[in-house]
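RECORD TYPE: inverse folding
INPUT: structure tokens
STRUCTURE:
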């Protein structure tokens, strides 16, 4: 009976760790950022390969991409890029590309807090192009 109780408690702890609010990652250009909107996910086929987020802080918006360990363990041929997409703009703002195989990338900060924006990110390799955007925040 103790083994079953311990297993139930362990499963509950794992479930809680996946349902809690995501914590802000460390932005190298702004020490105080807050995630705005829900996390979006980059997929390759049925595999989820990265998380895309939008943050605000230091008077700016920031896009962010984090490539999942499970994808990165067997794939290093991609280049990740993060940016902020402004409603009505043809191209994303503040885009910053990482190095080949880099795990996380922050966009440049954009002066767009007074606009409707989305966190935007993509991953490009010789064999695929995948991307995602967060929900729009105004």
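DESIGNED SEQUENCE:
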């Amino acid at each position: 009976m103790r083994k079953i109780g311990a297993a139930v408690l362990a499963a509950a702890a794992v479930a809680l760790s996946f349902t809690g609010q995501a914590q802000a990652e460390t932005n190298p250009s702004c020490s105080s950022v807050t995630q705005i909107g829900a996390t979006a996910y980059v997929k390759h086929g049925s595999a989820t390969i990265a998380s895309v987020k939008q943050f605000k802080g230091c008077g700016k918006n920031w896009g962010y991409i984090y490539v999942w360990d499970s994808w990165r363990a067997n794939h290093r041929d991609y280049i990740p890029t993060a940016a902020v997409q402004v409603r009505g703009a043809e191209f994303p703002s503040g885009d910053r590309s990482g190095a080949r195989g880099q795990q996380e990338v922050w966009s440049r900060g954009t002066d767009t807090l007074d606009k409707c924006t989305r966190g935007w990110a993509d991953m490009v390799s010789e064999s695929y192009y995948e991307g995602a955007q967060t929900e729009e925040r105004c």
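NOTES: The longest strand covers residues 47-57.
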